[in-house]
Design a protein that fits this description.
The complex is a heterotrimer. By secondary structure, chain A is α+β, with helices and mostly antiparallel strands. Helix content of chain A is about 35%, strand content about 10%. Chain A has 2 domains: about 100 residues, NADH-quinone oxidoreductase subunit E (Arc Repressor Mutant, subunit A, Orthogonal Bundle); about 90 residues, Glutaredoxin (3-Layer(aba) Sandwich). Chain A is built from 9 helices and 5 strands. A 5-stranded mixed β-sheet of chain A has the order 2-3-1-4-5, with helices on one face. In chain C, the strands form 10 sheets. Chain C has a 7-stranded mixed β-sheet, sandwiched between helices. A 6-stranded mixed β-barrel of chain C has the order 30-34-31-33-32-37. Chain C has 28 helices and 37 strands. In chain C, about 60% of the residues are buried. In chain C, a hairpin with an 8-residue loop joins strand 11 and strand 12. Classes of the chains: A alpha+beta, B alpha+beta, C alpha/beta. At the A-C interface, helix 4 of A face helix 4 and strand 8 of C.
């Protein structure tokens, strides 16, 4: 059932009664993001990432805030936002653990990893732990079949993961220790990566240059999790052909 | 001469005089029709008591005599008549128009509308012969005008 | 080819077609139907349903006919094995998830998916897995029900709401197999055009809530008609089951409404079959009660009175048809020999006759199609989305699709602002000044965009106020720039009334009357002063509509003998002495003249209740009773006479003979259509179109009972373009009320500019503040008429504790000297303090909203609940000064009446407030006094 309403003929200005999710600094970022594009409509996705960085996921108020900012209807924001699986419509944990269960990974024991993680986290795939720190999902091919079974934590790759490795990773994250992915990057929280994605290429007025745009592989350091068996990483292209 | 023809005719008469009578003294004695005889309709229910009829009006659409009227309405959680969203609020069959062809029964997508073998349809006014949903629904017993003392089985049909 | 034509071959037939047309349209005109779901001629192609794939020689793949423009030498085969295979495959795909709940689906029987599955489908499915399910039947608004399971993702509703209506409240969300059509959370599908998505939905996913489970398409009888609400005059089909109108759908007419109709027109039919309709004549008895009586007796009472009456006033309503208008005009001016006849109630201050200064037509010289070819459109008037919704769609299309520049002149934010090139935010009453600014190019930024062809649109906005200066300014602009004028009166019958001379100073055909009679205000004033013997209300409800509640109360309080012809027992009817029941638009033959003066015909569908009759017939009977036999037996007799006596209408031929009557391009060829090729020897579709795999295998074209899809019914009804009557000869120069303007086509010389000065009090050098969004005058509340201010002070008192006075038959303070419009409009008197003790006077600017408390809407169940509560819209700064904020309650008072209304902050000129005219619970006309009313607003 719809809530009771009086017809306004779709007057967007009548859309009120929501909470603006941005504080002043975030609003400044949002404005900077909109300023990046010739058409404000183009800023929908970065703004939704900004909402995710603020709220932890894309909330209803967040979508209304974005809609109001760029003059679209909330439905249009939902239509764009719901297409992208990285934008979560449900509350999710700080860390999103995705376990590939496609053919290569399944053959090399992905379901053992899933089983181990389920037991360790006390939840089935697709759910968030009670403390709200981890969301655990299964994924289709993560495009790293050569590192099967492969998992991602907040979209950072980990290769040749054994059930013990997976549990160890969760333990480390739970203790708040730094975890480095196969690419040697520190695994960040969902809010952090959402903020980076949202603000890539944008800059606040009065600040100089590009800020902390993500430099994939650029700050590579020895990984916590780069099994010896795996060939060198992508920035070391030569070893593939060799 | 016509004598051979007369004799021939008399032969038929004599043959039939000693045969068992096919007529019965209706209404005390009634014949039971064949199981697939197409008589008066009923509206069936599901085992859980909900009406099978969903008010789709396909019977009315199929009726060549335009004898059926259905007006549908929406089920609500408070007043649920049939499974799903739609039920027949008004269901009427006009037996003055019905030709008992059975196309309505064929059209019914939920097998709600069935035909019984009841053939005694008479009344003292036109209104009485427009059967409403309360009369057609299966839990209303079919009442006859006169009690039956004896019922002949279908085998005792005239043309059996 | 050089002439923009190309020749191509479709299924072996050579066709010549205009370049850049879509293959699907060209094929259809040839009689070759290509199945489709997403394609709709009123919207852009997206080619998402993949149903219209056809074989084109030279193309490696099949091409979607809806997104392929025709090219020279193209060889197309729509029945190629490969194409048919693709079509069958697509249908099998669509039916994977489409539930086969046709028996409970309202669309069944007129469903494009059903029809095309029969005709183009594979006949069986190989899919045995469970279907995708969603919660059934979501009510996404009070008018629309959504069943997501049935959706085939054709994007029609999404495209309509984004492209056409601009209310993108319905979208396809999620992705892949989970894609579903939905609104945002619990937000309602709050669009004035939501019903169109129901009509264009090719399945039963979007359904009408009022029509839900009401009928089957094969139970319906239908008749072409015209919407009875606003002056756009959208053609409709009325559909009835068992003598009761149960559905209205838009009939496409590319001249008028394209394919669309607003929700008020679509769902506003319940009033026709309302239980409250008057069914027999009523006469007031000595005991002061109404008594049902016979026509003869009621007519005797009326004619008896009329024989002795000397002073007669006639007010006609603007929802009557053109021939009713002629009958009223004839009754008044011929039989009763009075010119005290008028049809303007809400638009009482709108001098349409002054528009005749431009071309002799007291109405539009532009057509709606002119909007689309215009380079610039100037809009001066009310919010078209609220008052003339489909005109809003046409304007939107002209601006967004055809690239016209739109200049909006309005004291408050209206829906057009969002698409306007320039918005000139003027004071209330400052419109004339702003339009003059355009005429003489004061504002160079805006003037640069005033191009040619130019269409100037004007409609009366705030009910009752004097629009004279605005009309003059608009006419001057149109004349100066050689532009066309679109006059936008509010109601379906408004223009017909003017055409037929239901006007104190115009006779039929826009000829000036010999004697100038009283207008509505004059008639009511005469009644109030006891100077009227008999008042005839023909479809008019002054109590609800006339923008001076106190005057109406005094008029009826005087006990004038009143005769009413009405649909409903309205509040005005309650004051009448004799009442005649009138037939509604769906019950009668007739014509409506729309705002571009297009005459379109209504066909009767149901029978009127009781002995209700058409108003023209009632007028004719009254005249007969007075010994003047008009000899009218039927509708055609009226028109014969109109043709003979009204020169502008001499050529109006309602048999539509000789008019273009072409099949609609919007239809699905149903398998139930006997001859899918329309008599041409073209093989169309696989197997010329009978259901493959149907169990009987027999063709379905026998018998008339088979359901026809709604599009097909539209096809049968045929498009009737309507007729625009001719213009009268140019009026003599002496009648020109806009003397300063030069003749059409003449360049605007200095002379003309100088002669403009007297009226505007503004130096022709230009007001520097005449820019977008800047108020023209900084002195707010300066437009107040002194008489109104006095009136309020007297009844309200200065102590801020004004007694509550109801505008009724008694207790209304007698006031003299209803201010004459011309005298008060520009008088700037700062008589009352602009700000004292938390209370301030504001210029009142009212306007109708789409769903209001009008007699017809309030009797329409589906729309009744949608009407907004009354509110008062204030400028933010003004509200701040008063200590009011959004959602607060404010005390609004004027004319001795006060009310507590919700505050809304809006973009409105300072010193003005907007109050919707007629919303449930409170009528703004009670607060209005005089022509340019002032109200006070304060904190409660």
């Amino acid at each position: 059932m719809t809530r009771r309403y009086q017809a306004t003929g779709g007057d967007i200005d009548e859309q009120n009664g929501y909470r603006n999710v941005f504080d002043d600094e975030q609003q400044a970022w949002a404005d900077a993001i909109v300023a990046k594009y010739p058409n404000p409509r183009s800023a929908v996705l970065p703004l939704l990432f900004l909402v995710q960085s603020v709220e932890g996921y894309v909330t209803e108020d967040g979508m209304r805030t974005v809609a109001n900012m760029i003059g679209l209807t909330p439905a249009q924001i939902l239509a764009s936002g719901s297409f992208y699986t990285m934008l979560k419509k449900q509350p999710q944990g700080e860390y999103l653990i995705s376990v590939c269960r496609n053919i290569s990974c399944t053959h090399r024991g992905a379901y053992d990893v899933i089983q181990a993680l389920s037991e360790r986290l006390g939840t089935d795939a697709g759910n968030t732990t009670a403390d709200g720190r981890f969301t655990f999902e299964t994924a289709e091919c993560l495009a790293t079949c050569d590192g099967a079974p492969s998992i991602q934590i907040n979209y950072d790759d980990f290769y040749d993961v054994t059930p013990q490795d997976a549990v160890a990773l969760v333990d480390k994250l739970e203790r708040g220790e730094e975890v480095r992915s196969a690419a040697g990057e520190r695994v960040r929280t969902v809010r952090e990566i959402s903020f980076e994605t949202a603000t890539a290429g944008a800059r606040l007025p009065g600040t100089a240059g590009d800020h902390r745009a993500r430099t994939v592989g650029g700050e590579a350091q020895p990984s916590d999790f780069l099994p010896d068996s795996r060939p060198k990483l992508s920035h070391d292209e030569g070893s593939h052909s060799g | 001469m016509a004598l051979p023809e007369i004799l021939n005719g008399m032969k038929t008469v004599v043959k039939n005089v000693f045969k068992k009578k096919d007529t019965v003294s209706y209404p005390e004695v009634r014949r039971q029709p064949f199981p697939r005889y197409k008589g008066r309709h009923i509206l069936d229910r599901h085992p859980d008591g909900l009406e099978k009829c969903i008010g789709c009006e396909l019977c009315a659409g199929a009726c060549p005599a335009d004898a059926i009227q259905v007006v549908a309405a929406e089920n609500t959680p408070e007043a649920r008549f049939s499974p799903g969203e739609r039920y027949a609020q008004i269901y009427q069959i006009n037996y003055l128009r019905c030709i008992f062809c059975g196309l309505c029964v064929e059209a019914c997508p939920t097998e709600a509308l069935l035909m019984t073998t009841e053939y005694e349809l008479s009344g003292s006014s036109r209104e009485q012969l427009i059967y409403t949903k309360d009369q057609l629904i299966i839990d209303t017993p079919i009442v006859r005008h006169w009690t039956t003392k004896k019922e002949l089985p279908p085998e005792r049909q005239v043309f059996s | 080819m050089s002439d923009g034509k190309v020749t191509l071959t479709i299924n072996g037939h050579d066709v010549e077609a205009e370049e850049n047309r879509l293959l699907i349209d060209v094929a259809e005109e040839l009689g070759v139907y290509v199945p489709r779901f997403c394609y709709h001629p009123g919207m852009k192609s997206v080619a998402v349903c993949r149903m219209c794939l056809v074989k084109v020689e030279g193309s490696r793949k099949l091409l979607p006919a809806c997104a392929t423009p025709v090219t020279d030498g193209m060889v197309v085969d729509t029945v190629d094995e490969e194409a048919v295979d693709a079509q069958e495959g697509m249908l099998e795909f669509l039916l994977i998830n489409h539930p086969l709940d046709c028996p409970i689906c309202d669309r069944a029987g007129e469903c494009p998916l059903q029809d095309q599955t029969y005709k183009h489908g594979p006949g069986s499915s190989r899919y045995i897995e469970p279907k995708r399910t969603y919660e059934k039947a979501l009510e996404i608004s009070d008018l629309v029900v959504l069943d997501r399971e049935r959706c085939v993702l054709c994007w029609r509703c999404v495209r309509f709401s984004e492209e056409i209506a601009g209310d993108a409240f319905i979208q396809l969300i999620d992705r892949g197999a989970g894609t579903q059509v939905l609104t945002f959370k619990d937000d309602p599908f709050d669009s004035y055009f939501s019903g169109n998505t129901i009509q264009i939905c090719p399945v039963g996913a979007l359904l009408s809530k009022p029509y839900r489970f009401v009928s089957r398409p094969w139970d319906l009888t239908s008749a072409p008609s015209v919407c009875s609400y606003c002056a756009v005059g959208c053609p409709l089909t009325n559909e009835a089951r068992a003598e009761k109108v149960v559905r209205c759908q838009a009939l496409p007419n590319e001249n008028v409404n394209d394919f669309w109709v607003c929700d008020k027109g679509r769902f506003g039919y319940h009033y026709v079959s309302s239980e409250e309709r008057l069914a027999s004549p009523l006469v007031r008895t000595d005991a002061d009660e109404f008594e049902a009586t016979s026509w003869g007796r009621a007519l005797d009472v009326v004619t008896g009175r009329l024989r002795t009456a000397r002073r007669i006033g006639i007010i006609a309503g603007a929802h009557l048809t053109t021939e009713d208008a002629y009958a009223v005009s004839k009754l008044a001016k011929k039989t009763l020999r009075t010119s005290d006849v008028d049809s303007r109630l809400q638009d009482a201050g709108a001098p349409y006759e002054r528009a005749a200064a431009l071309s002799g037509v007291a109405g539009s010289t532009a057509t709606l199609n002119d909007l689309e070819s215009a380079r610039t459109i100037v809009w001066v008037g009310p919010d078209p989305k609220e008052v003339l919704p489909v005109l809003y769609l046409r304007l939107r299309k002209s601006v967004l699709e055809e690239g016209a520049k739109l200049i909006v002149v309005s004291p408050r934010r209206i829906s057009l602002d969002a698409i306007a090139t320039h918005v000139i935010r003027c004071d209330v009453g400052g419109e004339a000044e702003a339009v003059d600014g355009l005429t003489w190019g004061f504002d160079t930024a805006v003037a640069g965009d005033v191009g040619d062809p130019l269409v100037v649109c004007w409609g009366p906005s705030s009910p009752g106020r004097d629009e004279g200066p605005i009309v003059d300014a608009v006419v001057a602009l149109a004349r100066n720039k050689n532009a066309k004028l679109l006059v936008c009166p509010p109601h379906a019958g408004s223009q017909g009334m003017i055409d037929m001379g239901v006007h104190p100073s115009l006779d039929p055909g826009y000829t000036p009357s010999d004697s100038r009679g009283k207008d509505t205000r004059g008639i009511l004033q005469a009644a109030a002063a006891g100077e009227l013997d008999i008042l005839l209300l023909i479809g008019a409800d002054p109590v609800a509509d006339f923008p001076d509640g106190g005057l109406v109360a005094r008029a009826f309080g005087s006990g004038v003998f009143t005769v009413a012809v009405e649909l409903f027992p309205t509040e005005s009817v309650a004051h009448a002495d004799v009442v005649f029941p009138s037939a509604a638009y769906a019950e009668r033959e007739g014509t409506f003249t729309n705002l571009e003066r297009r005459i379109q015909k209504l066909e009767p569908l149901t029978a009127p209740p009781g002995s209700a009759s058409e108003p023209w017939r009632i007028c004719s009977r009254i005249a007969h009773g007075l010994g003047d036999d008009w000899g009218w037996a039927g509708f055609n007799d009226v028109w014969t006479e109109i043709r003979a006596t009204v020169p502008t209408h001499a050529h109006v031929d309602l048999t539509w003979a000789g008019q273009e009557s072409r099949p609609l391009s919007l239809h699905y060829e149903s398998p139930f259509q006997p001859d899918p090729t329309h008599g041409r020897s073209v093989s169309a579709g696989p197997g010329a179109g009978y259901p493959k795999g149907h169990r009987s295998g027999a063709p379905f074209h026998t018998g008339q009972n088979w359901p026809l899809s709604w599009e097909l019914r539209g096809f049968e009804a045929r498009q009737r373009p309507g007729i625009i009557p001719s213009r009268p000869p140019e009026p003599p120069a002496g009648d020109d009320p806009v003397s300063p303007a030069p003749a059409p086509g003449a360049p605007a010389g200095d002379d003309a500019a100088l002669r403009l000065i007297p009226r505007t009090d503004t130096p022709a050098g230009g007001d520097a503040s005449l820019r977008s969004g800047t108020p023209l005058s900084s002195a707010f509340a300066s437009e107040a008429s002194p008489s109104s201010a006095k009136g309020w002070s007297r009844t309200g008192g200065e102590d801020g504790d004004s007694p509550e006075v109801k505008a009724g038959k008694s207790g209304v303070p007698e006031r003299s000297g209803e201010s004459s419009p011309a005298a008060t409009w520009h008088s700037v008197e700062d008589e009352f303090p602009s700000f004292s003790e938390g209370r301030r006077s504001f210029v009142l600017y009212t306007g109708r909203l789409l769903y209001d408390e009008g007699a017809m809407v309030s009797k329409t169940v589906a729309l009744k609940s949608l009407a907004r509560r009354p509110f008062v819209e204030l400028n933010e700064e003004d509200a701040k000064e008063l200590g009011l904020s959004e959602g607060d309650e404010a005390l609004v008072g004027g004319n001795g009446v006060r009310a507590t209304l919700e505050v809304r902050l809006g973009d409105i000129a300072r010193g003005a407030v907007f109050i919707p005219y007629d919303q449930p619970g409170w009528r703004a006309n009670s607060i209005i006094r005089g022509v340019n009313p002032v109200v006070e607003v304060r904190h409660p």
